[in-house]
Amino acid sequence: MVNHTKVKDYMTQEVDTVSPDDTVRDVIQLIRRTGHDGFPVVRDRDSKVMGYISAADMLEKGFDEKVSKIMSRDVLVADTEMDMSDVARVIFRSGKSKLPVVDSNKHLRGIITNSDVIRSHIERTSPQKVWTLKKTLEAIHNIHVDVIREPVNIDELVPTQPKIYADELDGRIYELKKGLAEPIVVIKKPNKLILVDGHHRVVAAKKLGIKSMDAYVIPLGDEVHLGMEKTATSAGLHTLSDIKILDYAKHPLIEVTKRLKKNDENGLADINQ
């Protein structure tokens, strides 16, 4: 099993916050005291995130103006169980320097910053997915497999993931334009290249007209029968064009707090009460 680093492993638990009943004067004093330029706005009785207030929100506002009247309600928050690699992409493409962190009940549990993201990536020393896949294949099929680093033709790739998310795809397109891309993971059989990891990256590359990508490649013979290969065939996945792009879905562990109110009828807490 891959040991992903989680937000809860890197977040700062002690967070400076403000109440919706605080005033602009109170927030200015907190800025002077802490040096921070913004704070989560939390409900006093249960620490549920209601919004976020920054120095920009207070421009031309009176000192006695209540936080609840001027705070931003459309706020990105991260889940405690979210992978740090996913947080890195969200922060990178949203332009945010920090995200409030909440648990499954939307209680504030900490804050994650771009500095935390950098720290987590510096500490990551090996491509865990690749080596875990290698060990799994060796254990299941009682064989030895090698891992080769080489470019692959993306038009030859057979996908194993039926859908990707449009917002994630946009982020990967942006990363590729900036020259930032992790290697994809591919199993190479005599007449087939099976894409194991990197579906968003590959589709992004195809949209940009990129013909090949750097990859960790594991060569296997046809005598090795893979469950993922059979599942992909059953799902009708033969080329990249068979992957569906969902333009209405977001990352499952990223919430915009404003949306939570709409889900109150389904048992989610109304953060605005």
Using brief descriptors, characterize the structure shown.
273 residues; CBS-domain; 10 helices; 13 strands; disordered C terminus; methionine biosynthesis; amino-acid biosynthesis
Please explain how this structure is put together.
This protein has 2 domains: 7-122 and 251-266, CBS-domain (Roll), CATH 3.10.580.10; 128-242, Alpha-Beta Complex (Conserved hypothetical protein from pyrococcus furiosus pfu- 392566-001, ParB domain). The longest helix has 14 residues, at 128-141. Helix 4 crosses helix 5 and helix 4 (84-94) crosses helix 7. Strands 6-11-9-10-7 form a 5-stranded mixed beta sheet, sandwiched between helices. It has a 4-stranded mixed beta sheet with strand order 5-4-3-13. Helices cover 32% and strands 23% of the residues. The model is unreliable at 263-273 (pLDDT under 50). It contains 10 helices and 13 strands. It has 273 residues and is an alpha/beta fold. The chain has helices at residues 7-10, 24-34, 67-70, 84-94, 114-122, 128-141, 166-177, 199-207, 227-234, 257-260; strands at residues 38-42, 49-54, 76-79, 98-102, 108-113, 148-153, 157-158, 163-165, 184-189, 192-197, 212-219, 244-246, 254-256. The two termini are 41 Å apart. Strand 3 (76-79), helix 4 (84-94) and strand 4 form a beta-alpha-beta unit.
